Amino acid sequence: MTVYKLKVLGQVFVLSIILSFINSPAHANSCLRPYLDPEKIKSTGTINVQILFVKYPDSPKKSKGYIKDQLSMLDLDVVSDYFKQSSYGKTKIKFRIHNSWINMPNNSYDYRMYENSQPDWREIEQNYFRAVLSAADPKIDFSKSDVVYIVSDPDLYPTYVQLRDFQVADGKSLKAVVYNQTSAFIATHELLHTLGLKDLYGNFASQLGTPGGMEQFSIMSQAQTGTNLTGYEKYSLGWIGSKDVICQESGTQKIKLNSLDSKGTKLVLLPLNDQEMLGVEYRKNEKVDKYLGSTGVLVYLIKQNAQASINGTGEPMVPIYFGNKGDVDYSGVKISIKKNNVTIGR
Fold first, then answer.
1. Per-residue pLDDT, 245
2. What is the pTM of this model?
3. Which residue in 48, 156, 213, 275 is a FRET match for 66, CA 20 to 30 A apart?
4. Cβ–Cβ < 8 Å for 295, 285
5. 239 and 44 Cβ atoms separated by less than 8 Å
6. What is the pLDDT of residue 305?
C-alpha cells in the first residue's frame, strides 16, 4: 500500500492508493496454524541424541569391533549437516554415543517390534521403550538427552520407527527412534518426526516413500534421498520466520520468490478455509535440494489436521503443480508462473 499525504486548505488528508500489483508485499504470520504433531520435542537449539546399541539373548554373536563398524556406516555427520543446513543453523544435533551393548532381558521377538501394523502398536512401542530405558538406566544418565536413538541388533530384522509417546528417565521426558539400518537420510527422517513432522507418503504402507504423497519435495515423503523439507514444514518448525513468508488472504500480488536455500521471500501461503491452505515456493536443485530432479515453482495443498494413512488418503500435503512456466487455477486462486516470478490473484 502506498500512502500519499495531501495538504488542502490547511488540513491534512490521507489518500491511500491500493496498487493492483505490489512488488514488495507486506509480510504476515496469520497463516501459521497448528500443523506439527503435539507429542514433540523442541525444534530449535541443540538437540541431544543418545545412541544406544541394543542386543538380546537371541542375538547372533558379535565381533569386538561391531559397534565401531556400525557407527562408521551410520554417517552421523550427514545427519548433523542436514539439520544444520535445512534449519539455517537454528537446530543442531549433538550425538552422545554409548560404545557398549545394552543387554535386554528377553528375546527380540518378545518385544514384537516387527509387528508395527497391529492395533495395539502404540502399547507395544511404549513397552519396548520402557524396557530399553530400564536396561540402560544403570549405565546411562538421560538427564541431558532429548531423544534416544535405539540401534536394535541389525543382525535380526530391520527396524525404522519413531516412537510416538514420551517416556521419562532421570527426570527428563524423552522421545525415541528405533533405526538399525545405515541410511543417513532415513535416520534424519525418523529424527524429524521427534520435532513433530508428519509422514507425507502417498501410501503409508509403502513405508519408505515410494512415488505419491509429496513425492520428491520433502524428506518426509522420500526418505531415501536427502531432499529438503517444504517451506511450510520449515515455517511450522520456526526455521523460516514471518519476514520470509507472505500470507495472502485476498487481492492480487506479483512476487519474486527466492529458493529455500537463499535469502528473501521463500513462501507464499494462501488460506482456503479453516483447514486448508495453498503453499507456493521456489525449489532449486542446489545446496540441501541438490538431489531435487529439476528447478521450478511448487504449488501444494496443506491439510491442517490430516495424517498419512494406510490406504493413501488424507495426506497432510499434496503437490498440485511444479514447473517454470504455467498457470494454476485452484479453488478460486489463480497463479501465473514464469521462472521464479509468480502473480497470484484471488
1. 95
2. 0.87
3. 48
4. yes
5. yes
6. 75
Answer for the pair 328, 301: CB distance below 8 angstroms, yes or no.
Answer: no
The three-state (H, E, C) secondary structure of the chain, written as one string:
CEEEEEEECCEEEEEEECCCCCCCCCCCCCCCCCCCCCCCCCCCEEEEEEEEEEECCCCCCCCCCHHHHHHHHHCHHHHHHHHHHHCCCCEEEEEEEEEEEEECCCCHHHHCCCCCCCCCHHHHHHHHHHHHHHHHCCCCCHHHCCEEEEEECCCCCCCEEEEEEEEEECCEEEEEEEECCCCHHHHHHHHHHHCCCCCCCCCHHHCCCCCCCCHHHCCCCCCCCCCCCCHHHHHHHCCCCHHHEEECCCCEEEEECCECCCCCCCEEEEECCCCEEEEEEEECCCHHHHHCCCCEEEEEEEECCCCCCCCCCCCCEEEEEEECEEEEEECCEEEEEECCEEEEEC
C-alpha cell of residue 340 = 521464479
To which residue does cell 520435532 refer? 195
List pLDDT tens digits, range 93-108.
999 999 999 999 999 9
| Under 8 Å between Cβ of 145 and 168 | no
Q: What is the pLDDT of residues 38-90, one digit of tens each?
A: 999 999 999 999 999 999 999 999 999 999 999 999 999 999 999 999 999 99
User: Are the CB atoms for 334 and 280 separated by under 8 Å?
Assistant: no
Considering only the C-alpha atoms of the chain, give the largest distance between any 2 of them, rounded to a whole number of Å. Answer: 96
Q: What single-letter amino acid sits at 284? A: K
- The Cα 144–Cα 314 span in angstroms is 37
Q: Which residue has 543446513 as its cell numbers?
A: 85
Distance of CA 330 to the CA centre of its chain: 25
Rounded Cα gap, residues 43 and 239, in angstroms:
8
C-alpha distances out from residue 301 to 116, 317, 319, Å: 29, 5, 6
**Torsion over CA of 153, 154, 155 and 159, rounded to 10 degrees?**
90
Answer whether 27's CB lies under 8 Å from 245's CB.
yes
Question: What nine digits make up the cell of 133?
Answer: 530405558
